[in-house]
Every structure is written in C-alpha cells, then in structure tokens.
Design goal:
9-stranded mixed β-sheet; binds alpha-D-ribofuranose; alpha/beta; 10 helices; binds sodium ion; 4-stranded mixed β-sheet; 311 residues; ATP-binding
C-alpha cells in the first residue's frame, strides 16, 4: 500500500488533568478530572491526516510496556500503517503530563523516553516508505539526528517535506533542517526561538516569515492560534495573513498538530489547490479540534466537516 503521508516522529501517552486554572509555581490546587489520551506531536499529526482520509504510515518507537502496546493498537484501529513502529526494551513509552485550565490554555511537560531511541538505522530500515510517500512530516520530539536523517532521506527520494520545529529547538539547528524542508511551520514561540525576533501577532509574524524563508525552505508559515497563520513562499515573498475561524475554545492541546496534519493531507490529496486555500482549510480543521477536549480524539473525521473542505 503506497502511503500518501509518512510521519517520522513521536508517540506520547498524554496524562491530562483538567483544573480551574494552571497552578502557580509552588502552589497545589484541586483538579476536576483526569484522563489519558494518545498524543505526541508526530502521532497527533499522523492521526489528524488519517482521520481526514489520508493513507498514513508512521515511523516511531514506543516502550515494550502497556502504553506502547495500547499505542500500536490505537494506530491500527485508525487504519495507520504500523510496520515501522517498533518497541524498545531500553526506555518507557513517552509520556506528557498536561494541565488544561478552564479557559482552554494548557501547560505540558514531555518525558520523551522511547522516542529518543528511534535511530537512523530504524529510519534506514523504512526506506521503502520513503520511496512511495507523497508527503513526509516531522517535528522535534525525537532526536534531532533522526529527524534530520528523515528529512534528508525524504528530500532525496523526491518526497514533499513539512518540518514543524516543535517544541522550540533548545539549540541552533543544522542549516540542513531548513534546506531539506519544503515547508517550515513553527508557532509564535518556536518562530521567536528560531529567528531571534519577538513574534507575538500578525504584524511581527510578517516580519519574521522572510527570515525563515532565507534559511532555505520553500514555504514559511507561522501559526498564530486563533489568529490563523502568516505565510510567504519563494514564489510569493510578500507575507500574507490567513485569518483564523472564530470558535469557542474548550481545549487547544494539539491544535498545532491538527493544522500540520491537515496541511500534509491537503498537499497529498489536493495538490492543485492554491497554497492560501490549503492553509485556510488547515486552519479550519485546527479550529474545529479546539472545540472538543483532548488531542487525537478531538480531531475531526472527514464526515464531521463541511463538504466544501474536500472540494
Ligand atoms: O502538541 C501537543 C502534544 O505535545 C501533546 O499530545 C503532547 O504529547 C506533547 O507532545
Ligand atoms: Na482539542
């Protein structure tokens, strides 16, 4: 089965506590509810694309533990190819304790565990996937070496590459990350870290986008939460704003992943749509996801969305 979309990235079990607000440092407060959910930026993006109707394959590492086994079953239930989701004895499945406040804001601690055990040889073992995929997506929740290896391999095979530099890189990335990315799509915080400019709104994003382009990617997109995104490309260097949808946010966790997964979907399945329209539709999918609790389980299926999103 030739995949539309290939994701090389993370699997985390999200351990989500709902509380009236986020606790302050040193403070103890009562939460209202606790749930676990399948998360991790890589898997979230893969699931977002698969729920929209893409054939998706995942390259990832989980621990040989209960969460790892559940994780693989979850992928299978969603029709995602798990031939290259392997288990390690050397670390636990990644976890992410998350607190969600009543206004939908969140704070997250990631413990990567098995994700850091996905190696370049695991990626080499998945060569056949790189030969057939249309789009490959990656993030920064596995080792940077493995991420760069996947980007180079995809680019070398003529696969369209989308790099979501999330969470924000701890140190400067090898310039090859950007040169091997057809799209780079950070949020405001990540864009600030990467460019050294303060990105907080549409205007500052318009200033930062050309800096991202100069780093060597084909298309630079900065996502702005409820304000949509700002983008520019080598073909159209003038930064342009795509307005967000107005919705009542319940839980914004993983909204950026819904956007990235949707973007990969539209590049793979609707390549001829203008870039601005692909972005408008991807923003729509992300906005839809914040109206429900959770990460992957809040992402819409094709049947949940208006017909015109797929026209
Ligand atoms: O982007 C949201 C994701 O970040 C969560 O699912 C959590 O696992 C963290 O990786
Ligand atoms: Na959500």
């Amino acid at each position: 089965m030739a995949a539309d979309i290939l994701v090389t990235g993370s699997c985390n079990m999200d351990l989500i506590t709902y509380a009236p607000r986020l606790p302050l440092p040193g403070e103890t407060i009562h939460g209202t509810r606790y749930v676990t959910g399948f998360g991790g930026k890589g898997s979230n993006q893969c699931v977002a694309a698969a729920k929209l109707g893409a054939k998706a394959s995942m390259i990832a590492k989980v621990g040989n533990d209960a969460y790892g086994k559940e994780y693989i079953e979850n992928f299978k239930a969603l029709g995602i190819d798990t031939g290259h989701v392997t288990m390690t004895e050397d670390a636990c499945t990644g976890v992410a304790p998350i607190v969600v406040g009543a206004d939908g804001t969140n704070s997250i601690i990631i413990v990567p565990g098995a994700n850091l055990h996905l190696t370049e040889s695991d990626i080499d073992a998945a060569s056949s996937l790189f030969q057939s995929a249309k789009v490959m997506l990656c993030q920064l929740e596995i080792s940077p070496e493995s991420t760069l290896c996947a980007l180079r391999k995809a680019k070398g095979a003529g696969v369209f590459t989308i790099f979501n530099p999330a969470p924000a890189p701890q140190k400067e990335l090898d310039p090859d990350f950007y040169k091997n990315s057809d799209i780079v799509c950070p949020n405001e915080t990540e864009a600030s870290t990467i460019t050294g400019l303060e990105v907080t709104d549409v205007e500052s994003a318009k200033v930062a986008v050309p800096h991202l382009l100069k780093m060597g990617c084909g298309i630079a997109i900065i996502t702005l939460g409820k304000d949509g995104c700002v983008f520019a490309s080598k073909e159209r260097e003038e930064p342009c704003w795509v307005k967000g949808e107005k919705v009542n946010a319940v839980d914004t966790t993983g909204a950026g992943d819904a956007f990235a997964g949707a973007l990969a979907f539209f590049f793979a399945k609707f390549p001829h749509l203008p870039l601005e329209e692909k972005l408008r539709r991807s923003c729509y999918v992300a906005s839809d996801s914040v109206c429900r609790e959770g990460t992957q389980k809040s992402y819409p299926y094709r049947r949940d969305l208006p017909e015109e999103i797929f026209a």
